[in-house]
Specification:
The protein is α+β, with helices and mostly antiparallel strands. The chain is built from ten helices and eleven strands. A seven-stranded mixed sheet has the order 1-8-9-10-7-6-5.
């Protein structure tokens, strides 16, 4: 699997198109009834935090508070998306200044353990989703192995004529019809990504009849249609969420978003699936392990795919 991290803007289309979504939105049977209310955290501090800080300790007061809060976040005392006690409560409990409390909270925010909403308070961040890049697999397949619940909402499907960018990636003549599939992906009933997929029209017209709410495209292509998926190329960069994308991902407009371009090949080294994946910047993490030594065949294959000379 080839991975390229890029810093400049690509030819990706606008990730969310409200007019298109409104015209073509199709809910695929997902149950959102349990996803409305975030976990509730008591407004009083946990007993493990209730003792006054030790001013005689060589450890700074803000560090003592930070570590106690971190421990309660990691052991589940304060639940994901739950609200932390207010700064005033912490000032009274720890008998420290507001500046000291804020320094502790700022450290935890930099680590990604908490986030603040102006006028509402401080909340525990959701743990980052980790996906290992060791094989070609769909998001649902990867999360199933981790015991997580996933489903999708199909926001829209349509046949379009491929422009220069899409046609080049799928090795089709420019103007050839391809199927575009837009899906909002959920993990443990929280929105985790927007996936915009492009496949040849003949495959796409079959795919849109499948249960895309509960099955990965890769699983269908491989198991049902008989396409042996061999490898994928990934390009990763960062963008800011516009208003439409922010609404889909349940984040603030302008927040950082990880954008991934993924091009997947069959065993005959033919591209079959090209997609843009958009994840909240603070919610997703790829885990990659790379080696230093490669045999001659691996070097040759990498060079062929990189230079576009594979047959």
């Amino acid at each position: 699997m080839l991975i390229q991290v890029i810093n400049s803007a690509s030819e990706a289309p606008s990730p969310a198109n409200p007019q298109f979504a409104a015209a073509d939105a199709v809910a695929m049977g997902a149950d959102l009834s349990g996803a409305s209310a975030p976990p509730t955290t008591p407004s009083v501090l946990h007993a493990g935090l209730s003792s006054v800080c030790n001013p005689a300790s060589p450890i700074p007061l803000y560090s003592q508070i930070r570590e106690r809060l971190r421990a309660c976040i990691l052991d589940g005392t304060y639940l994901s998306n739950g609200k932390l006690p207010s700064e005033n409560e912490m000032v009274k409990t720890f008998e420290v200044s507001r500046i000291t409390v804020r320094q502790a909270l700022n450290d935890l925010q930099k680590e990604g353990l908490i986030f603040k909403i102006h006028g509402k308070g401080t909340f525990v961040a959701r743990p980052k989703v980790v996906q290992k890049l060791v094989r070609v697999e769909g998001f649902g397949e990867a999360m199933l192995g981790a015991g997580r619940e996933t489903f999708s909402l199909v926001l829209g499907t349509r046949l379009i004529r491929a422009g220069a960018s899409i046609s080049a990636r799928l090795q089709l003549a420019e103007g050839t019809q391809v199927m575009e599939i837009r899906r909002q992906r959920f993990l443990d009933r929280n929105p985790i990504s927007l996936d915009v997929t492009y496949v040849p029209a003949a495959i796409g017209t079959r795919l849109i009849k499948e249960d895309l709410a509960h099955r990965d495209v890769f699983e269908i292509l491989d198991n049902d249609y008989g396409f042996a998926l061999e490898c994928a190329e990934l390009k990763i960069d960062a963008i800011k969420a516009d208003a439409s994308l922010a609404q889909i991902l349940a984040i603030e407009e302008g927040a950082a978003v990880m954008r991934i371009e993924r091009l997947t090949f069959t065993s005959h080294e033919r591209p079959i699936d090209f997609e843009y994946l958009y994840h909240p910047g603070n919610a997703f993490q790829y885990h990659v392990r790379v080696g230093r030594r490669r045999d001659a065949a691996a070097v040759r294959r990498t060079n062929e795919l990189t230079n576009g000379t594979s047959k």
